[in-house]
Amino acid sequence: MYTQPCLLNSKNSLIVSVQAEAHEPLGNASHLLALCHSVYQGGASGLRLANLQVMQATQGVLPRIGLLKQVPPYLAANASLLNEVYITPTLETALAVAATGVEMVALDATPRPRQDGLTLAQTVQRLKAAYPAVKVMGDCDSLASAQGAVAAGVDCISTTLAGYTAQTQATFNPYQPDWDVLQALLAELAHQLPVVAEGRFWHPEEAQRALALGASAVVVGSAITRPHLITQRFALATQAV
Prior knowledge:
The protein has one domain: TIM Barrel (Alpha-Beta Barrel). Helices cover 36% and strands 14% of the residues. It is built from nine helices and eight strands. It has helices at residues 29-42, 52-57, 91-98, 120-130, 143-152, 179-189, 204-213, 222-225, 227-239; strands at residues 14-18, 46-49, 64-66, 104-108, 135-139, 156-158, 195-198, 217-220. The chain has an eight-stranded parallel beta barrel, surrounded by six helices. The longest helix is centred in the N-terminal third of the chain and has 14 residues, at 29-42.
């Protein structure tokens, strides 16, 4: 039986993703840091962060999952990322995240080619060699990618990318988690390592359902920390009346 990483030991198991694009109103580090303290006050058990400065500034506040989103420069602003690895896509970015002192580094764990040509297994091995204490989360889109992530040596897997790759876009629903992928990962892999539910969790009842199914934790982002998207949902609903 595996040992749960410290980030996944909390009773409430709510990890809040505090992220924003640089062009968004909350995109600077000071606003993101304020959001981190707000969700801490609200009872979050961990943070998922994509800003190095915020990772460093939140040490000791809550356990953190760190990542960097890096879009390949050859892609136009409106190009699709369905075939691209952009969540901590290189060993260099993984090392930069680990250097902040975060407890866990999240990597794209799909079989798509990584930007530096390394395999996922090579990235995990070299990252752990440099930072033996750091844990690695594999962001998956399907059971197949999760199985590959387990073989590569990650410490936990998540459903982060379900619906966001070319292979899974047919199942994408903007306002509903991918329950099929979550249940497949839990059925096949939960006895080997923690399975984290992430992606389009908009309601507390959905988080409860994921935990009841056996997820070790639930990551919630936009429904808590991205007010322009929350407002957009209400605006669209009221316009439809």
